[in-house]
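Lab notebook, bench 4. Still working through the backlog of constructs that have no structural model yet. Next entry is a single chain of 492 residues. Request: give me the structure tokens for it.
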Amino acid sequence: MKTVHKLVLKSYLGPMILTFFIVMFVLIMQFMWRYIDELVGKGLDMSVIGELMFWAAMTLIPMGLPLATLLAAIMTLGNLGENYELLALKSAGISLPRILRPLIIVVGAISISSFFVANNLVPHATKKIYALLYDIRQQKQSIEFKDGIFFNGIDNMSIRVGEQNPKTKLLTDILIYDTRNPDGDMTTTVADSGYITLSDDKKYLLVTLYNGETYEESRNYTWFDNSTLRHHIFDVQNGVIPLAGFDFERSDMSLFNSSQTKNTRELMIGIDSLEQVSKETAAASFKPLIESQIFTHDNTILSDSIPRPTHQKAFAVLDTMQKMSVQQRKELYERAISQARSAQGSFSFDETTSKDALAQLYKYKVEWHRKLSLPVSIMIFFLIGAPLGAIIRKGGLGMPIVVSVSFFVIYYIITITGEKMAKEGTWGSFAGMWIATFILLPISVYLTYKATNDSNLFNAEWYTQRYKKLKAFFNHIFAIKRKNHDKTEFAQ
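Model written out:
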């Protein structure tokens, strides 16, 4: 490997790794902030939160890689240009494409690897996240008593604590309403003090009360007229109450399936199945109307485009109704209304099934194209960032971040818009997921051409000179027109 290539690779790999981890950190924090309300107050172990953050990081790689590639390319070439290393290489007869050759190979390898990440790792990580979030949502909040406020986190129980000692965890002025009895009996317990804690496995509530009274009201199906009340005074009362939902239980990941949890092979199988289902449901929506419901009794609706059923009998509907009595017409009208409503219900059901199949089909196609467009977008972002860095010639994290974020925001907005249109069926999935690539590709080619030819695209002095020349040209034109106008007036 040439010394020049080693220099360029060393200058690029450091910023690439740094910017990738910075971008991933920002994206993970955004993800955690989105679900922070569901994580707080449930007593989750740090291992669960760490696992959620890890799998979230895996799913965010397709978003972080393009931005990191763009930012690192601008920083690398900007540093080389700012330190006049890029100028020295060009003075030695090395063109910009030759300088970028090792970086293109590295970024190409990253692009190819990103496809396998998006195709294999991301679906598995997405399924893990769905399962973890479901389990977290199912877990109840940890038992935390607040002075003077009822705690209703346990089913069919309400517990109020007057005061809690933060050091000894001793509770005072305890009031418990218990309606867990399936027969409808209600128990009210009042105690001066006690302890209420969860067992280590979080499956039982351990209750120890001191100096209290228990009131139990027995009820039956005639409780309004006939009920009994039992009163019990105790010095110490111990209880073990079974609980559910306070321990973190894992769900089967196979229960969570969507377009985002499948690879390209599974997506293609799903696309073929959904296309067949959508065609069958669309055809089934009209067939009952034609063969056995409304259209079989109205010749004016049938046409060459709608095949006539074999049992269809032609008759003049209006002439037949004129011969009917009022009662017969009423019965015919009611029968027609009933049949029309039945046909409408059947058609609505088939139409809903067809729309659901089409919605799933659009999502599957969008995910399939997303996995293929990711490697191309990474390469395009590099071809945008490297020429921009060579033209701007500014390193560090100032100007590169501004330019990188601007291009990425444009790309993200276009991609989100195209994805939304594709999922709604307004655009094709290919156009929706590749439109951002098609827009940025000419820009990358143009910037590469300008950087190769040492363009003054971002040179403010060059634009100032061009503005002055253009202004002088128009002033000269206006001066000539004014002179000719004065001559014309003098001649008149």
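Notes after review: The mean pLDDT is 78. The chain has eleven helices and six strands. Flag for follow-up if needed.
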